[in-house]
Design brief:
Elements (H helix, E strand, L loop, with lengths): L9 E4 L7 H16 L8 E9 L5 H10 L15 E8 L3 E8 L3 H8 L3 H5 L2 E9 L5 H18 L4 E7 L9 H16 L5 E4 L6 H13 L3 H15 L3 E5 L6 E6 L8 H22 L1
Parallel strand pairs: 2-4, 2-5, 5-6, 6-7
Antiparallel strand pairs: 1-8, 3-4, 8-9
Helix pairs in contact: 1-8
The structure holds guanosine-5'-triphosphate (GTP) and magnesium ion.
Subunit structure: Component of the GSE complex.
GO molecular function: GTP binding; GTPase activity
Function: GTPase involved in activation of the TORC1 signaling pathway, which promotes growth and represses autophagy in nutrient-rich conditions.
Length: 288
């Protein structure tokens, strides 16, 4: 991913009507550039994000789709992750996600909780735990999840915890709500006293983007200031809605709306369309 200013991620939805909108756009871009400009190495904010869950639950697949432009069907070729794969993903100028994709085979998991315990679980800002909804051994999954929470409580008490009930596409449509609700109730009970946020996800639809947008949103330190500027910008422009996307991943960073929109998944759909368009352009330019 490229280091970047977010200005190119600014998109209009609806039609801004005021004559002064161009000036407002410049003003807002100036704000973004000053808040998120690439900084000297010493003040780069590095946030450690652990991605955990049993082998085959889909961790590397989601990472590859969100951050490396994979399409869903390419993930079938991925091999199991050996130990931990680290990646540093630069966001909004001076924010770096230090993502630890932890291979979920049992031998690795046992090591994380014993010899590598401090190394893995200290200074964690976010834990993302991925559950395969079709898993045959839910008890075992829960056992590892709870070991993980214990280690987090001991080493990174303030970490935010997100649980993804993943591969929802494999569940019949009419059973999805019930199945998800059951899993969430169980997860909440097993996580006490820690608070968790849960999502139902699949690499085959927009739910993955929605979940990761929320996760990234939780990591941005000055998000409230950004949202308030975005709201001002939206009303000065008389726009129906302004959506701020991160320019490499097209995850939604923030939005400001002045009318109600019925489609709750519009951001992920836009992200998807633009991402596919970018991929198409890249393929064409590689060919020529
Ligand atoms: N149907 C379906 N399959 C998925 C989904 N996400 C991932 N997969 C498939 O699950 C398989 C395993 O995915 P990986 O991403 O390698 O799993 P992992 O969690 O990284 O596994 P380890 O590296 O061994 O811990 C791949 O064949 C993916 O195509 C999903 O949402 N739905
Ligand atoms: Mg993997």
């Amino acid at each position: 991913m490229s280091t970047g200013r977010v200005s190119t991620g600014l998109q209009f939805i609806g039609s801004p009507k005021q004559v002064g909108q161009k000036a407002s756009l410049k003003g807002f871009q100036r704000f973004l550039s000053s808040e998120f400009r690439p900084s000297p190495k010493s003040i780069i904010m590095k946030k450690k994000v652990l991605l955990m869950g049993k082998s085959g639950s889909g961790k590397t697949s989601m990472r590859s789709i969100i951050f490396s432009n994979y399409i869903a069907r390419d993930t079938r070729r991925l091999g199991a992750t050996i130990d931990v794969e680290h990646s540093n993903l630069k966001f909004l100028g001076n924010l770096t996600l230090n993502l630890w994709d932890c291979g979920g085979q049992e031998a690795f998991m046992e090591n994380y909780f014993t010899s590598q315990r401090d190394h893995i679980f200290k200074n964690v800002e976010v834990l993302i735990y991925v559950f395969d909804v079709e898993s045959r051994d839910v008890e075992r999954d829960m056992h590892y999840y709870q070991s993980c929470l214990e280690a987090i409580m001991a080493n990174s008490r303030e970490a935010k915890i997100f649980c993804l009930v993943h591969k929802m596409d494999l569940v019949q449509e009419h059973q999805r709500d019930r199945m998800y609700e059951e899993r969430v109730n169980e997860l909440k009970t097993r996580s006490e006293p820690l608070k968790i946020k849960t999502f139902r996800t699949s690499i085959w639809d927009e739910t993955l983007y929605a979940a990761w947008s929320t996760i990234v949103h939780a990591l941005i330190p000055n998000i409230r200031t950004l949202e308030s500027h975005l709201n001002n910008f939206c009303s000065i422009c008389d726009a129906d809605e302004v959506v701020l996307f991160e320019r490499s991943t097209f995850l939604v960073i923030a939005n400001a709306a002045r009318i109600n929109h019925v489609d709750a998944h519009r951001f992920e759909k836009i992200s998807n369309i633009i991402k596919q368009f970018n991929l198409g352009c890249r393929q064409v330019s590689n060919r020529s």
